[in-house]
Specification:
about 10% strand, 4-stranded mixed β-sheet, Ribonuclease iii, N-terminal Endonuclease Domain, Chain A, Double Stranded RNA Binding Domain, about 260 residues, alpha+beta
Length: about 260
């Protein structure tokens, strides 16, 4: 299969190489063709003002990067959470690839300082705009993919995404907008018994920086399920998930249990 060519900036090789060197350690990837990275960092305002220097901007790379990111984050979650439902996987992925997640990640990589943008956009604070930072991150993802796919396929960009995104999964799991096992269980209890489910932290252990909590989900003082996690919220979500599993499998006879790995 013939791979399509990419219209990269006609910038001096030194500028592209310099940007690649600065980002290599932060990104965890060194470009073979640094011009791809330079294209990923070229905002349309710069291309409009400098058409000879930058015949293209990063919008096409942004389009590709969005799809690559969706695929690889989906793969990461599918493998890591084999018991998670499709709906929960979709919510978690949406949280991880949203602008509110990608913009801070781009800031940590200092992409704003590397962006090539027009004078007007620059003077209006464009380097700190969440939308521009998020778009730039997606463009860089596409640039890594294009730079490495000929001999490594998805392996290189997969490594980059896993290194950058995996540490953020815990934070996303702790968001009520992502997981709502507690709401699902509460709705069941209200409909069936007209009473709320309450949660009790039954134990905690481990050093301060790696504490583990265990929570129980209770209805009328009867334990429905128990779960553990690295925060009280995660432990309660795990307990709710275990309770729901127990309700779906009533023959087990004892309260269900779930760990952070299963519930998250």
């Amino acid at each position: 299969m013939t791979l399509p060519t990419v219209q990269a900036p006609k910038d001096a090789p030194g500028a592209a190489a310099a940007a690649s060197d600065r980002l290599a350690e932060r990104l965890g990837y060194r470009f073979r063709d640094p011009r791809l990275l330079l294209l990923a960092l070229t905002h349309k305002s710069y291309a409009n003002e400098n058409p000879l220097d930058a015949p293209a901007d990063n919008e096409r790379l942004e389009f590709l990067g969005d799809a690559v990111l969706d695929l690889l984050v989906s793969d990461l979650l599918y493998v890591r959470f084999p018991d998670m439902t499709e709906g929960s996987l979709s919510k978690l992925r949406a949280s991880l690839v949203a602008e509110t997640s990608l913009a801070p990640l781009a800031s940590e990589l200092d992409l704003g300082a590397e962006l090539r943008m027009g004078r007007g956009e620059d003077s209006s604070g464009g380097r700190a705009k969440p939308s521009l930072l998020s778009d730039a991150f997606e463009a860089v993802v596409a640039a890594v993919y294009l730079d490495s796919r000929a001999d490594r396929g998805l392996a290189a960009i997969h490594d980059v995404i896993e290194r950058l995104i995996a540490p953020r999964i815990e934070r996303a799991l702790d968001s009520a907008a992502v997981f709502d096992f507690k709401t699902e269980l509460q709705e069941w209890a209200q409909k069936r018994y007209k009473e709320p489910v309450v949660y009790r932290i039954v134990s905690e252990g481990g050093p301060d920086h790696e504490k583990t909590f265990a929570a129980a989900a209770l209805l009328r003082e009867r334990e429905l399920g128990r779960g553990s996690g690295r925060s009280k919220k995660l432990a309660e979500q795990a307990a709710a998930r275990a309770a729901l599993e127990g309700l779906r499998n009533p023959d087990r006879g004892t309260p269900a249990q779930a760990s952070e790995g299963a519930a998250s």
